[in-house]
Amino acid sequence: MVAMKEMRRRSRKKTAVLGVLLLISVLYYFYPFEFLLTSFTKSPPKQLSWQVERLISKESWAEQGDYLPLNVSYQLLAGMPSTQQKFLTIGMSSVKRKKGSYLVPTLQSLFSQSSPEERSSMVVVVLIADFDVYWVTSTVREINSTFASELDRGQLLVIHVFQKWYPPLTGLKRNYNDAPDRVSFRSKQNVDYSFLIHYSAGLGQYYLQLEDDVFSAQNFLTTIRKHIEEQNAKKGTWAMLEFSALGYIGKLYKSSDLPLLARFLFLFYQEMPCDWLMSHFRQLMAQRETILFKPSLFQHMGTFSSFQGTYNKLKDKNFEEGLYTNPSAEVYSNISTYQKYFPKLAWDPGEGFFWGRSPERGDHLTVVFLQPVVVTGILVETGSGGKDLLDYGQVELGQDVVTAAIKSCKTFQSLGAFMNGRFEMREVDKLRGSASSCLRILVTAGQKDWVMIRKIRITTKSSAS
């Protein structure tokens, strides 16, 4: 009797195990990606309800009335959305590349080039836009291990959209005589950006579009905030500010416009590449001309394209990584200025430069800081194409501002001479730890050639900390 009960118990157990295995097989057959992704991730992805659990931009009429709904559902793979709106949302999508991956270095650059205050004002949203479950899970694990603190603080979110939510990606219109695989690639990219932007609406006051293979300038968020304030103070409207001239890198939008932009990219996803579509969107939003700020805040780092792994040497010539640290200052020079190439143009951000006629010994360009600063690094570049270099000169720091015909400092200490028209020095504070009130470029020998000072860039202890 006991033996029969034991046999029945084993039979029921065996039947239950077979039933579970059958159920798993059915689930895998019908939902292979969803099943594997849930099984292999550190914890099961949370299915997000678009209407309920996302911070929706209430400024958009499309969202207020739920007009033109996008039929898409998201999975949150890492991080947790903040309940409070940030100043800036940074979005990027990432797919598996045939050669290497730049996603982690891109994220590291964004966070390392930002101060703690800047990081608390932004959230980075990464759409893992690939359908290879093993690559997705390994990428999420790497992000979890590398950016644990940013995920915990709500500064980084990783999301995914299953393939079933995508429109057709093959057999599409071959506009511009593109090859079918190229059409599929750029069309999917448009949908990726549409879903990413759709999700991001409301997370921040402004939205910045990046790609997953860039590195950023120091304190880029502070510079973006400054340019937004300046642009908002001007008459007229704007729809897109550009902080890079390349592709879909560094394009900034108002959060209230994101619902329309997401639908625009989705509706015309198979017509043309995303950077062409965004130009049309800008014009439709009544901004006729581009508003491009230079130097650029973001540089393309990728060597191999995400499309077929082809070699890509695209670089933004206007990028300067450490540009935006110069403190407020007045700039003077007794070198005869040519036309409107004034001395301060060498100090201010942008493409401007100072251009002066043949300098004589003792001539100078002097920068007088509005507030004394502890200088940690200095870079001065002169000339262009090997011409108009400063042949003989030195860089000095001064103290105790005096006002005569022009402002200057009472005493100066030389830091070193120009070499081939260039001066660069790091760890200046180890040589001169006290605060300085002036920086002077002193001509030590006259020259017949004119002089062009293209760039004066400094770092200070407060901005470097």
Task: Please describe the topology of this protein.
Elements: H1 2-30, H2 32-40, E1 46-48, H3 50-53, H4 61-64, E2 74-78, E3 86-94, H5 103-112, H6 116-120, E4 122-128, H7 133-146, H8 148-152, E5 156-160, H9 180-200, E6 204-209, E7 214-216, H10 220-233, E8 241-242, E9 251-254, H11 258-267, H12 274-284, E10 298-300, E11 329-333, E12 354-356, E13 364-373, E14 375-382, E15 393-403, E16 407-417, E17 422-426, H13 428-431, E18 436-443, E19 451-460, H14 461-464
Parallel strand pairs: 3-4, 3-6, 4-5
Antiparallel strand pairs: 1-2, 2-5, 6-9, 7-10, 8-9, 11-13, 12-19, 13-18, 14-17, 14-19, 15-16, 15-18
Question: What does this entry look like structurally?
Answer:
The protein is 31% helix and 25% strand. It is of the alpha+beta class and 465 residues long. A hairpin with an 8-residue loop joins strand 8 and strand 9 (251-254).
Which characteristics define this entry?
465 residues; 8-stranded mixed sheet; alpha+beta; 5-stranded antiparallel sheet; single chain; 14 helices
Summarize the structure.
The chain is α+β, with helices and mostly antiparallel strands. Helices cover 31% and strands 25% of the residues. It starts with a helix and ends with a helix.
